[in-house]
Amino acid sequence: MKMSSFFPILIFCMILFFTSPCYSDPDQLQDFCVADLNATTTSLNGDFFFSGFTKEGNTNNNFGLAITPGNVLSFPGLNTLGLSMNRVDYAPGGVNPLHSHPRATEAGVIIKGKVLVGFISTTNVLYSKVLKAGEMFVIPKGLVHFQKNVGRGKAVTITSFNSQLPGAAVLPATIFVSNPAIPNDILAKNFQVNETVITSIKSKFGSS
Ligand code: GLV
Ligand code: MN
């Protein structure tokens, strides 16, 4: 090979080598993050222990559910470490409503009770199973899922996420309690029902 044709190839390979580690952004950590252009320092978190999971959550609500998050907001020591956990308490019959985590895959273990766990793929296949204490599940990132306590007593799960702040789009709230509200005619068309059905569902959530 002539020297004159070798140099452009060499330069191209060097550019590829030095720039390839930078070809994509890291996964986002929250819905949005407006830069503070005046910040002059970086703050460091120093709290690496969290006792938020020692207490049972209060499941006295319509879903029979209590979620205690151990994410960067409640446990700042997680900052930049890329993971977090939840304690989830269920009353008998309690349901963790349909939701998805836009920024994380979820893995969970049943600590107590019997829990039906399900998720729906983007091809609308439902994968579900009843699990007992000690058994584990995984929910792929972003997929809609739910849990229900199908045992006689209370149930507890511990879930973990590969994000310090996985986020949760809880479908009933997203659809019927957004602010501002999604117009009723749009919801009626989406669900192929009369608008009175929509106003009736919204009223259950104290919305209109
Ligand atoms: C369960 O699905 C959880 O998000 O903790
Ligand atoms: Mn979840």
TrEMBL record:
Q: Where does it live in the cell?
A: Secreted, Extracellular space, Apoplast
Residue ranges of domain Cupin type-1 in the record:
51-199
Where along the chain is oxalate bound? N86, N96, H101, E106
Q: Its GO biological process terms?
A: plasmodesmata-mediated intercellular transport; regulation of root development
Protein name (database record) = Germin-like protein
Q: Which Gene3D superfamilies match?
A: Jelly Rolls
Q: Which GO terms describe its cellular component?
A: apoplast; plasmodesma
Q: Does the keyword Disulfide bond apply?
A: yes
| Residues engaged in binding Mn(2+) | H99, H101, E106, H145
User: Which InterPro entries would you find in this protein's record?
Assistant: Cupin_1, Germin, RmlC-like_jellyroll, RmlC_Cupin_sf
Q: Which CDD domains match?
A: cupin_OxOx (cd02241)
Family listed: Belongs to the germin family.
Cleavable signal peptide: 1-24
What keywords does the record list, in alphabetical order?
Apoplast, Disulfide bond, Manganese, Metal-binding, Secreted, Signal
GO molecular function ontology, one term from the record:
manganese ion binding
